[in-house]
Amino acid sequence: MKEQQLMVALRIRPLSEAEAEEGAALVTRRVGEQKVVLMDPSEDPDDILRANRSREKTFVFDMVFDHRATQEEVYVSTTKSLIGGVISGYNATVFAYGPTGTGKTYTMLGTDCEPGIYIRTLDDLFKALEGTTEEMDYGVSMSYLEIYNEVIRDLLNPSSGFLDLREDPRGSIQIAGITEVSTTNAQEIMQLLMKGNKQRTQEPTAANETSSRSHAVLQVTVTQKSRRKATGEEVRVGKLFMVDLAGSERAAQTQNQGKRMKEGAHINRSLLALGNCINALSEKKGSRAQFVNFRDSKLTRLLKDSLGGNSRTVMIAHISPASTSFEESRMTLIYAYRAKNIKTQVKCNLQNVPYPIDQYTSIIADLHRDIEHLKARVENQEKEQSAVRSDLGNLQAQGHQGSGAHSGQAMDALRAQLLGAFREQMEMCHSLMELENTNIELHVDTCRHLLTITDWEREKAQGAAKEKKDESTEEEDREGGITDSPEPHEVTVAREEINLLLAEHRKTMALKAELEQHLANAKEKASQMEELFPRQITSDDQQEVLRLLCRAHELELGNTDLQAKTLYKENLLCQKDFVIQQLQQHMLLCEEIIQQQQALIKAQNIPVPETLARLQQLHLSELEEGTLNRLLVLHSMMSGMLRQKSIGAAAGKTTPRLHSPISPDLHGKKSSAAITTVPLSLETLREIAANTKSISLVAASRCSRAQCRGPGSKVSSACFPEDDMLELKDLEVSSTPGCQTSTGGMLSEPAAASQLCSPARGAPRSCRDQEMSAERAARMKRSRSLEPNFHRTSKDKHWTPSRPNTDKASECHLCQARLFHQSKAASSTSTAAKVKVPIGHRSEGTPLEVLPKDNGPASTIQQNNAGRVQGRVLQKQVKGPADGASSRQKQQSVTRWGNQLKIK
Ligand SMILES: Nc1ncnc2c1ncn2[C@@H]1O[C@H](COP(=O)(O)OP(=O)(O)OP(=O)(O)O)[C@@H](O)[C@H]1O
């Protein structure tokens, strides 16, 4: 990882005709290649009182261009050098900053005769790639978007609506549903850009006839893969962002009113957020280190890596030379000058680095099977549902003909009430899932930050060890002992972000608890309504209609549950990537240790025991055979396919896609156990965040394993957020021989264990894992421990992390989460049973009466609200179909529920 200072260049455009007509004086002067002098036009040179104070301010930048600079010069001095890095897998960003009308678009896009940075960069990029394609396979894709009034639009496909901005598990920002064009022709790209630019929101302001009112971002991704098999299947991905920001303007200067004023407010909001980030980042190393809030605007979230992360970044600040723009120029120069202090950490983006992952391939295969199985069940349920719906239509038609007016009215009222109640329940279910989804996102974010901190801790530890070694050999240089190197700002940011994320998690959990309570009440209400059928509705047909309604509702809930389970599996896959990343780093460390030890053995001529020699031989042949590479490719292919399939399914089907399931527990009937994700103990994370010195993901997961371990154990409350501890404390779990795992106990009843551990298949995966581990352990006679987390199996032929450390930890959480939800479902059922007066449901136009409970025969609560649910895409897919609108609906639905809860 290399530290890079942000490069800041300044471009001063020529005096415009309008400025010249106004008689504006020149207030800027370029001195040499790197200096600019700004003169304050308001100061009187004859003012004796201020005679000692200079009316000139000098600013130094990496490059200063004045009106004589050509587009080629600006490009060559700022951007050209980034191309090589992007091809080798590094990220880079160029952004144009400055007040309106100072030439940002001119610099970035340019004109037909004087093309700007976009086209020159792409031209050179393709030329460079052509020269190297003998050795490498390259892929180039680009996307072009604008952020206008805090919403993101695809400039290559404006009809796709507003897009969502997401962070992927590796922490890079993604735009869901954005069009990515693959091409190798710069001319084609120029046409696309011109076309896209026409879609950009552009309006005349007093300062600029063709003012761009939005921030435009052109992203080019270069993927590089070696053609020589011997070098492995390593893929390097370099991303280049080219950003034309909207003008940093003041309303007074641009005389903006109405819509322009509102736009200005949004533009200023994101630019203000950008300014704040620049301020905070530039002071990161200084005494006034501040928190950098990238989340304040879409723009700063998008530029997060460019400013504070993994990117070589160039800022081209723009100013006008006119005295009339003095104030804007001064502010821009101050900001740009500050930005020079920003440092980014640059590292090559490698994907698919060879790593022994056989255990993951089997898990992934399992997940694949589960997903297929669940999908098949979803399809069956859908078929059943449509059959029920058509029956229902027929019966309703008959009911209307055959029954009297009075009974028809009662029937309609009851039906409306039922539908209202079911709809409310479904909305609550979806809101709960959305909250759970948010929790997962928060968790993924937290893990990512933990990884950053772990990386740093490891680097620090290695550095300290090295220093100690040096110290012993060069004592004279080490008077002060080992000095603590300063913590990189990304690590400090990670620590701060973890705290924020934990706070957000607590809020989400509180809202979720309220919603769950509300849902339990709603279910109780619906069950009371069902008991009234026989009294209020006399006709058999009508009763049948209502029963079918309830059945449809039940199916709908079941359907939702299944889809949620599917998505949960997908999420689990995603989390495996994290673990792989972590293990991969550990693997590299181990490799280094092995090499050094081998060198030592050789140098000292130490006799090697036969067993060790055999293992070394095995290790070498493993490397030569490239088995690990193949496994890795298999892993990436399978997980890629799975994700692709999911995306395809989401695009093709109109059924909802949910990240996390809810357990519908209707009318006292136990439904399948709900699953949620609590992959790391939030308590543990909180401790880790607080205890900043010894933070490590491995430590965190070990901790949570340790807390969950032990035969006949109680489910440890330490594995759950504190809000959930009360729910769990009385839940006794006993071990089942053969099913006991090192990561958590099973319910004593086999059926319950199966339900908890593997809802989709017969044998609980934890049990299977246990058997496999035992089998493996028996075969591991020659295995030898390198360090506590790693072992070598004769079957695996390579160093590999012990299974319980990874997948079992996840399984442990999975089991516990299910357990928790089941206990919660049980407790909510009992709570619901105590409710005497049901809360009124919302139904369209028909306020629900409080219905007396009688002792009529119980039947099943059902609902047909499938139509409502269909067409809602509930999971936001990165790089999937555009789903921005639906995710906003989701947000609204969650917020709405949040608000309703508050009101209630
Ligand atoms: N270096 C330059 N040489 C010649 N003309 C320039 C130069 N810089 C800007 N211009 C001209 O000034 C005008 C305004 O430039 P441009 O639209 O690029 O400004 P901007 O900073 O992008 O404004 P906004 O933020 O309002 O979109 C254009 O007509 C452009 O051609």
Walk me through what this model shows.
- The chain is an alpha+beta fold and 904 residues long.
- It is built from 26 helices and 21 strands.
Structure in a nutshell:
With 904 residues, the protein is an alpha+beta fold.
> Can you give the helix content as a percent range?
40-55%
Taken together, the total number of domains comes to 2
Tell me the distance between the termini.
53 Å
Residue windows where pLDDT falls under 50 for at least 5 positions: 250-263, 352-359, 476-483, 646-904
Quaternary structure: single chain
The major β-sheet equals: 12 strands, mixed
Which range does the strand content fall in? Answer: 5-15%
Q: Label the structural class.
A: alpha+beta
Task: List strands and helices in order, with pairings.
Blueprint: E1 2-5, E2 7-12, H1 17-22, E3 28-31, E4 35-39, E5 56-60, E6 63-65, H2 71-78, H3 82-87, E7 92-97, H4 104-108, H5 117-130, E8 136-148, E9 151-154, E10 162-167, E11 173-176, E12 181-182, H6 186-199, E13 202-203, E14 211-212, E15 215-226, E16 235-244, H7 251-254, H8 258-282, H9 298-302, H10 304-308, E17 312-319, H11 326-339, E18 343-346, E19 350-351, H12 358-402, H13 405-473, H14 489-531, H15 533-536, H16 540-604, H17 610-625, H18 627-652, H19 682-690, H20 697-708, H21 722-728, H22 750-757, H23 765-779, E20 790-792, E21 799-801, H24 807-834, H25 866-869, H26 884-903
Bound molecules: adenosine-5'-triphosphate.
Adenosine-5'-triphosphate binds next to helix 4 and strand 14.
